[in-house]
Amino acid sequence: MGKIVCAGLGPGDPDLISVRSDRVIRAARHVAFFRKAGRAGQARSIVQGMLRADAVELAMEYPVTTELPFDSPEYNDLLAAFYDDWAARLADLAQREDVVVLCEGDPFFYGSFMHLYTRLQGRAEVEVIPGIPGMVGCWNGTGQPITWGDDVLTVLMATLPEEDLLRHARASDALVIMKTGRNLPRVRRALAAAGRLDEAWLVERGTMPGQRVARLADVADGDCPYFAIVLVHGHGRRPEVPE
To answer: FRET label pair with 114: which of 54, 76, 106, 195, CA 20 to 30 Å apart?
Structure first.
C-alpha cells in the first residue's frame, strides 16, 4: 500500500526547494507533474537532474490552458474530466506504490494539485509538503519589503473583471496580481485609474534564470508571460525617527 505525496517546489530556484521535498523527490520511483502539451513543464524543469535514473515519469498534460475562456462550460468540463481521470490513475497506482506529485510554489495556494486533492479524499493516503509561494520569490526580486506594519495585502487574479481589480487596488495597501499575460492591459488600466500605476512592478520568472524585474509603466502590454506577477508594495507604519 503506497501513498501520494505532493511536493511543493517553491518559486522556481531549485535551491529554494525545502529539504523535505528535496529528499522525497530524489527517492521517488514514480513522479507525476502537470504540463502543457508539447512543453517540458515548469515543475519538471525545476527538478532537472534530481530524479533517480529509474524513476517513472507521469506527465499530466492539460487538455486546455488559454485556448478557451476559463469561465466557459466547455473549459470547465474538459478540466473536470482531466482531474477526474488523473485522480483515478494516481489512486490506483497508490494502492501499490508511492507517487510523488510535483507542484510549483505551495500546493495549497492556487496550485493545480488542489483539484486532485479533493478528488483523492477517501481513495488514497495523501501527504502535502508545503513550498514557498511563487509571489514570495517575486517580491524578494524587487529588493523591497512588500508590507509594513499594519498594511493590508490583497492577492488578485488578473482574470477578474476590470472593475473588481480597480476596487481592490483602491482599497488595499499592497497588491499581488497573478496570471497576468494577456490580461495585462486591464491590470494596467485598473492600476492607472486607482492612481497606482507608477508604484507597480512586473516580475517575470521570479528566482529563475532569465528573471526580469521592471516598472510596469515601462512594459508593453504584449510583453508579458502568463505566469508573471504584478506587485504594488505597501508603505505602512514603521518605527522611524522623524526628520
So the answer is: 54
Task: Name the residue type at position 64.
Answer: V
Residues 193 and 240 sit within 8 Å (Cβ to Cβ): no
- Single-letter residue type at 222: G
Mean pLDDT by 10 residues, the chain (243 residues): 96 97 98 93 96 98 76 86 97 97 96 96 97 96 95 95 97 96 94 97 94 94 82 86 62
Q: Rounded to whole angstroms, how far apart are CA atoms 210 and 45?
A: 14
**Are 4 and 120 contacting, i.e. CB atoms less than 8 angstroms apart?**
yes
Coil, strand or helix at 11: coil
* Pairing verdict, β 30-36 and 56-62: parallel
For 57, the grid coordinates are 515519469
Nearest-5° angle of CA 42, CA 46, CA 49?
A: 130
Question: Phi, psi at residue 56, to the nearest 5°?
Answer: -90, 120
DSSP at 121: T
Half-sphere exposure of 135 (CA within 13 A, CB side): 24
Enter the pTM of the model. Answer: 0.91
- What are the residue ranges of helices labelled H in 94-146? 113-120, 134-141
